[in-house]
């Protein structure tokens, strides 16, 4: 049964009752002995009504067969409308390719545009498929550790320049960035675009977290708006391949629908890619996508207002329960990149969190070796649950627990 937390229920956006979460059939709560699921990037929020209606409507009317032009066009037109309104980004229909997921789009781009098998640059920490997908396709991956300035992570352009000079062909950009929550500024994106263009390289820009850029400041600092990489300059427009989807922003990871956006110069390629990729987009997913972009903005704004308060609470909870852990409040999305280096959990913080606090998170090393000593924690959950998670983490992390157990026990357990 789905119940709603009355106090937090807004006119349209609603969160699940904490008790409901454990019985839900969702990857985030499919746990292996832990009590709290804070690993998988899903939100513990009730889906937006326009999306549920679109999916239920598709099922009820038998619209769950193969995709067809009307459904494909509805999703693409809605995406174009969204991009125009949100980012003043005008995209030609001929440059939009429906696909079953952003990773599927990445895979296709690597196959299609990297036939010369040039190495792929992945700034790290990185969403782990950015490392594993190119490798699975036989491509060499060059990890480019990002720089952290007071907890804000940025690209190391000198290192990226070197990697292109040594023969890399493409860089995978995560904009906004998972797991650190960085929203790259126009200046940062422009500098990258100039550099990539000077080497004749390409950028696959994964913009799946774009709807989750915060507009409200929580510390008086202006919030940087999300800027689609392809819009920063003519060079970026020409060499960018953009992957985008509603699945993160509207929390519908199972709908299997996304879009690849290419530039005019890739139009002939886009035509061939269309044949290859459109088949992977699900028909209910196409209708859900159209509904989100056309009618999902109110829900998104209300959801972001809720998440923004979680962001504020999170900063307090880290300070209260995890003293010594460094953390930069993200400018986008709901993933906290917690720095346990220098604490007694530094060796494998997510393993400590799992074994000692029974909280599922993701080990920083899954995001590349630069993630050693970090863990990623999902804070898109009802605030009472977020508080419970930190109470558990705090008790397990406390000096008293350390004195009683010591760091060795965990390795032997
Ligand atoms: C940065 C990023 N890209 C892609 C995905 C997965 O996208 P899809 O399911 O559309 O392949 C995720 C999921 O967490 C993600 O965080």
Characterise this structure.
- This protein has 413 residues and is an alpha/beta fold.
- The protein folds into two domains: 6-47 and 298-402, Aspartate Aminotransferase, domain 1, CATH 3.90.1150; 50-295, Aspartate Aminotransferase, domain 2 (3-Layer(aba) Sandwich), CATH 3.40.640.
- 41% of the residues lie in helices and 13% in strands.
- The chain contains 15 helices and 14 strands.
- Strands 2-10-9-8-7-3-4 form a seven-stranded mixed sheet, with helices on both faces. Strands 11-14-13 form a three-stranded antiparallel sheet, with helices on one face.
- Strand 8, helix 8 and strand 9 form a beta-alpha-beta unit.
- Helix 2 (49-60) packs antiparallel against helix 10 (283-295), helix 11 (297-321) runs parallel beside helix 13 (383-397) and helix 12 (349-357) packs across helix 13 (383-397).
- The longest helix is centred in the last third of the chain and has 25 residues, at 297-321.
- The structure holds pyridoxal-5'-phosphate (PLP).
- Residues 41, 101-103, 127, 174, 178, 206, 208, 245, 247, 253, 258 line the site of pyridoxal-5'-phosphate (PLP).
Short description:
With 413 residues, the chain is of the alpha/beta class.
Number of domains: 2
The count of strands amounts to: 14
Q: What is the string of SSEs from the N terminus onward?
A: HEHHEHEHEEEHEHEHEEHHHEHEEEHHH
Q: Averaging pLDDT over every residue, what do you get?
A: 93
SSE arrangement:
Blueprint: H1 18-23, E1 36-37, H2 49-60, H3 69-87, E2 96-99, H4 102-113, E3 120-124, H5 129-136, E4 141-145, E5 147-149, E6 152-154, H6 157-165, E7 170-174, H7 186-198, E8 202-206, H8 234-239, E9 240-244, E10 258-261, H9 267-277, H10 283-295, H11 297-321, E11 335-339, H12 349-357, E12 359-360, E13 362-363, E14 374-378, H13 383-397, H14 399-405, H15 408-412
Parallel strand pairs: 1-12, 3-4, 3-7, 7-8, 8-9
Antiparallel strand pairs: 2-10, 5-6, 9-10, 11-14, 13-14
Helix pairs in contact: 2-10, 3-10, 4-5, 6-7, 11-13, 12-13
The protein binds pyridoxal-5'-phosphate.
Residues 41, 101-103, 127, 174, 178, 206, 208, 245, 247, 253, 258 line the site of pyridoxal-5'-phosphate.
């Amino acid at each position: 049964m789905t119940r709603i937390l009355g106090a937090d229920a807004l006119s349209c956006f609603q969160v699940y009752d904490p008790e409901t979460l454990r019985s839900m059939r969702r990857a985030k709560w499919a746990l292996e002995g832990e009590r709290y699921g804070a690993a998988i990037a899903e939100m513990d929020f009730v889906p937006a009504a326009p999306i549920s209606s679109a999916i239920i409507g598709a099922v009820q009317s038998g619209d769950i067969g193969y995709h067809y032009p009307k459904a494909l066009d509805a999703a693409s037109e809605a995406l174009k409308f969204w991009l125009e309104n949100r980012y003043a980004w005008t995209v030609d229909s001929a440059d939009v390719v429906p696909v079953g997921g952003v990773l599927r789009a990445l895979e296709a781009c690597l196959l299609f545009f990297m036939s010369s098998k040039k190495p792929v640059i992945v700034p790290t920490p990185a969403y782990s498929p950015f490392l594993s997908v190119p490798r699975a396709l036989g491509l060499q991956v060059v990890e480019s550790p990002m720089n952290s300035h007071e907890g804000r992570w940025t690209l190391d352009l000198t290192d990226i320049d070197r990697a292109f000079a040594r023969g890399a062909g493409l860089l995978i950009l995560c904009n906004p960035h998972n797991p650190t929550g960085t929203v790259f500024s126009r200046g940062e994106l422009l500098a990258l675009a100039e550099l990539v263009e000077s080497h004749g390289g390409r950028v696959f820009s994964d913009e799946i977290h774009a709807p989750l850029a915060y507009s409200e400041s929580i510390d008086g600092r202006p919030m940087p708006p999300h800027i689609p990489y392809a819009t920063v300059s003519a060079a970026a427009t020409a060499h960018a391949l953009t992957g985008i989807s509603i699945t993160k922003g509207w929390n519908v990871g199972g709908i299997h629908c996304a879009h690849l956006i290419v530039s005019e110069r890739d139009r002939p390629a886009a035509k061939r890619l269309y044949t290859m990729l459109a088949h992977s987009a699900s028909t209910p997913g196409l209708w859900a996508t159209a509904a989100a972009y056309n009618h999902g903005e109110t829900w998104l704004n209300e959801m972001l207002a809720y998440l923004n308060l979680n962001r504020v609470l999170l900063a307090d909870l880290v300070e209260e329960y995890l003293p010594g852990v460094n953390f930069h409040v993200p400018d986008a999305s709901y993933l906290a990149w917690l720095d346990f280096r220098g604490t007694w959990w530094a060796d494998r913080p997510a393993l400590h969190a799992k074994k000692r606090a029974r909280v599922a998170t993701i080990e920083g090393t899954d995001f590349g070796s630069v993630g050693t000593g970090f863990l990623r924690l999902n804070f898109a959950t009802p605030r009472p649950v977020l508080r419970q998670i930190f109470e558990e983490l705090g008790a397990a992390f406390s000096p008293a627990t350390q004195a009683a157990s010591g760091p060795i026990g965990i390795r032997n357990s």
